[in-house]
Design brief:
By secondary structure, this protein is an alpha/beta fold. 62% of the residues lie in helices and 6% in strands. The chain folds into two domains: 361 residues, no CATH class; 227 residues, Rossmann fold (3-Layer(aba) Sandwich).
Length: 663
Amino acid sequence: MKYRPEIDGLRSVAVLPVILFHAGFSFFSGGYVGVDVFFVISGYLITTILISEREAGTYSLLGFYERRARRILPALFFVLLCTIPFAWRWIPPDPFEDFSRSLSYAAMFISNIHFLEKSSYFDIGAEFRPLLHTWSLAVEEQYYLLFPLVLWALGAFVRRKFLLVFLILSAVSLGIAEWGWRNYPSENFFFSPSRLWELLAGSICAAILYGRAQLRNEFGALAGLLLILGSVVFFTDNIPFPSVYTAVPVLGTVLIILYAEKGTIVARLLSLPVLVGIGLISYSAYLWHQPLFVFARINSLAEPSPILMSGMAMASLILAYLTWRFVESPFRRRNLLPRRTGLLTASAVGIVLFAGFGVVGEVSEGFPARHESKESPMLTTWRLQLNRDRSHDRCLDKQSEAEGSLCEVYVPETSKGKIALLGDSHARAILPAFEEVSNAHGVAVLAGIRAACPPLLGVYLAGGGAEAVVCSNIALHHANQIILSQIDTVFIAARWSLYATGGYADEEGDFALTQTAGSRVKSAEERLENFEAGLERTVSFYRRAGIRVVLIEQVPQQWVLPENALLQAVLQGLGPKHAREKFKSSFVRRSNHDDLVRDASDVLGRVAEEYGAEVLSLTEFFIAGDRYAWFLDDTVLYRDADHLSTIGALKVAPLIVDHYAPN
């Protein structure tokens, strides 16, 4: 196969946006499309090589897998090995258990299955997953496992036959992706059948170009580059992936592969030595960047500065060069383990060892003994605060038996009325405070709570698939039950900004709201309008029924997970004094949270004023200088980044008790 330097340059166009996107630079909001570019390139190169060998009579399945092992495994094994001591030192047991399982699955090239299974609303975030990026390697290797069998079945190369089969398979895969994001959006991202059409796009390029001179079209090649760069800059996490939207960067890559003949402007640009050089080390750079970013975030607790993340991005390129020169190249040139038997044996041993370590780490639940011997009595006390029992959980768990039914949580001996708390998991977190309301005012407290569901009428989750309709139906069922139950006051608590504008990095686009089931949100303005429409519909419904409505603003959203911060203090050997100082440095800045919730809070205030509802803010309780605290007076107020702990809920209970007064 003739070497095309512009393909290596294209690899740099793929890897740099991925690195900068994961580093948190907002300008590269669509940098994740670099992975899709890699998929197309891989499909093109592998298909070209396999067809060429088949036609030349030199095809060997064992030889193919040997080459893949030499290309992929040495650098992968080296990076996996390097992550273990840092994970052991810095990652707490729960995320370390996840790390162990991902290590095992990554070594066997099925890590996409691990992340597919662990992609729900409450799973460990990317900041504690050094191997999250290995999902794409798994997808590629699964393709390499099956694709040679497809070519074998096709027999001798006939362009029309190959193109027809590739196009049919691509259409099926794209159809799965379109169905997947609408019904299982989180799982769809990691699902191999949803991604195969991207690799097949490269295979289609190979079938078109095989046996022909390189095509030339200045406009086509330039359009391809602009499609990729436009995706990098203008795509956001609100766009479902993979889906037909993914066709934009995929088509861009296809156009460059087909039309960037060496004399074109795009080919000359991509053939610049600096881009070719980065392209040559792109695989190792991809392997290194995620662990570096994760460990930087873990060790600093708070979100690292742009300067630090820029340094980590540069470090990933430096380590990539060293890995390419001293690990990748010696194996690919057969300077190390030149014989096939030795290489495949070493590969099998490596896979078994990494998989074995991962299994032990998972079975041991993250090696908790790492911190038990170091933990001070004070840190033990703080950790116990996170796990305090919530007696109301049993009652709420019964709701799964009768979806959408209200649950009687606190009932005094002599009831003077009924109130209800509605909401998502934020309502569940604050529910213990309502025991104090019940005791102080003698009212029964009913709860209608469904995690990850907006407590709003007539709206649907944009990315929730079938769950979107379930959430909408539950909100309606709760509303009807409240009318029938003669409830005089409804408190509504939720993570309002999640539905109105998103998270700090707008990473939760699936929680945008629409007013039609199955539709998508086209802009931030439309997202906010839909949120306001749902809130208006909800508040006006209850007010027309003569029911008092109290909207509880969300508590400050933190950067860190308290349990992990506590365990990191243990693993780093910090005493209580130094631990307190480190905790304070991790509190979210007031300006960050206030900016996050500003639009949602404005909507809450505007709707409350228009319909005669009330807004209850709890944020003043958390003020600690220019930050909002998750730890005050030796009390852990949160159980994760945005949900109160039981003790935290009890701490803010007086604010709710004082606000409520029976009619």
